[in-house]
């Protein structure tokens, strides 16, 4: 019987098996690297997106906070703290196992402009790519926010209808000023009732404003009198235009606050005997008995002498053709024939009240349009109080998209409606936020 002896494998077979094992191992390592690259790259991409959002929000927050403080050192510290707070709120330590690091934000003041740069990294441990010898990756992001220079006139209605809420109005107005930089922003202050006054003139060469002094002015401001929108706007326009062209800021803004409808119109009124009275006439409605004359450059002062009443030979013989309170020869803003309300030259009977009441709205609308043509933004705030109210008028002045007379070729501002005194502070905050938004 033949016995079969076991066959011995050919020596070359061992070598082939060894080669296959090595190739398989290398293939597995390669596959692990490819998979690891996909997984880790995906995590790095998500980390990068989150990091970008965090530094962006930090830069915006810093630009808003840079107004806090009265010196550049204080403003820099405020901006850096805000950047840090917002960054860490939006990118938590350990996000996707990463370790974030925020560099000290750079805050540069130059010619009325503040440039804030925020940069950060997140060191993220790798997973499958470790088989290729890579342990972690650093993801970086940067963001820059530029806050443009600002020229702003703050116009406050100080008419008698404000009396029940006057202390709260002044407090909220002072808080509003805290949103702007006393070293880089130029701010002027105007208030109006029967007439308009510039309380703090805007600086025409240097930047900044004296915020404590302006807030003291507001705190000590009295109220009383009628509502003369035109004089408030005229003072604001005159202040902004007083800055030489070469010194003007890139952003020019008027913030206009009122609780009522305009009812007073100042002009050079012709009288019998080739005489005139330069002052304001008030008509609280189209049928009310007019009163006047009021000084156009004082809060609530009636004139004396030949202009101490509207009766007899002191009554106007006709409506002035143009708004000419500041200069009898001015012909820029039409009164007789102005729109949208009909205004004629007649002053007999009830016509004086009708024409003054209508022109008191037409003239500020024309002024606001002229200011917007010059590139100025107008922001309006209406408090629903004791003075009557015309929301469409304030929308038209601001040129909001929903305004009846919206003009798409002019800058569009913001109108905020404060239904009660408790809504006033949020409205001021909204206007400040929007101004800061367009200043970037």
Please provide a brief summary of the model:
The chain has 440 residues and is α/β, with parallel strands linked by helices. 35% of the residues lie in helices and 22% in strands. It has a six-stranded mixed beta sheet, sandwiched between helices.
Mean model confidence by pLDDT: 89
Note the overall shape: elongated
Beta-strand portion reads: 15-25%
- State the helicity in percent bands: 25-40%
Low-confidence stretches: none
Structural class: alpha/beta
InterPro entries: ECM_Assembly_Org, Tad_N, VWF_A, vWFA_dom_sf
Protein name: VWFA domain-containing protein
Keywords: Membrane, Transmembrane, Transmembrane helix
Give an overview in words.
This protein has 440 residues and is α/β, with parallel strands linked by helices. It has 2 domains: 12-147; 150-263 and 321-438, 3-Layer(aba) Sandwich (Rossmann fold). Helices cover 35% and strands 22% of the residues. The protein contains 8 helices and 13 strands. The protein has helices at residues 11-65, 72-90, 166-177, 211-219, 229-241, 351-373, 391-398, 424-438, and strands spanning 99-102, 106-110, 113-125, 136-147, 150-157, 186-192, 196-200, 251-260, 264-271, 275-282, 291-294, 377-387, 415-418. The N and C termini lie far apart (103 Å). The relative contact order is 0.10. Keywords: Membrane, Transmembrane, Transmembrane helix. It comes from Cupriavidus pampae. Pfam families: Tad (PF13400), VWA (PF00092).
